[in-house]
Amino acid sequence: MLLFDWLTDWLRGLLVDGIMSNLGGLFDTVNARIGEVAGTVGTSPADWHPGVFNMIRTLSETVVLPIAGVILTFLVTYELIQMIIDRNNLNEVDTWMFFKWVFKTFVAVLILSNTFDAVMAVFDMAQAVVNNAGDIIGGSTEVTVYMLDEFRDYLMEMGLFSLIGLWLQTLIIDLTIIALNIVIFIIVYGRMIEIFVLTSLAPIPFATLSNREFSSMGHNYFKSLLAIGFQGFLILVCIAIYAVLVQSIVTSGDPIGAVWAMLGYTVLLCFTLFKTGSVSKAIFGAH
Q1: pLDDT tens-digit series, residues 247-278
Q2: Fewer beta carbons within 10 Å, N or C terminal of the chain?
Q3: pTM of the model
Q4: DSSP summary character for residue 158
């Protein structure tokens, strides 16, 4: 009987250690993921991958910019013709009209020649917001060792078969965390690639900003820049909410319920991360 009790206690300790190891790795992943995502989404395109950034900038300035220049030339010429027609073929001409047209053309050329700097300014602003939020969030979502120690006390009171079932469930949780890492990788790095793709064609919509009839293209493009820039902030908020929910799970006092709640929160996190793009576009009115 003593041997049986000793064996049971030994198995219980082994299972508890295994469960704590699985959950400890899980919580460490949560902590590390918050810092990693904060660093990635808070990085400007130029710093994220300088090689890709330089290639996109070269393509934009050497391939797309000349096309944008042709579009701008067409638009300012079209606007001049419309202005002449509207004034009864120059029979009711005012000198100030031509000064206004020259000034608008000058401003349009100035904006077009500094397109890349303007685009990067938008992302620098979004980066500053994300970095400030990351400093606040990173210090308030960490799962501490004391929380895990409290969780161990709950586990030691459980029966042997319950611990076996819980250990198997924690293995499932580990697999979901692997899936979560893949989802976060796709979303975060996919967002950066989308930024580069969006930036590469920036001169074309910027060429339309000075024209009243075609400026909606440029306005919507600017909204898209804001949306994808601040999507990083929404990604960070989603992961921070997930981390806070994990803290409440650890201190809930229900080990089995905690594991399944963790699984549910993980699936929910994946869903909300995918929705950050559409939510950000809806906020800024981008199509």
Answers
A1: 676 555 565 666 677 777 777 877 888 888 89
A2: N
A3: 0.75
A4: S
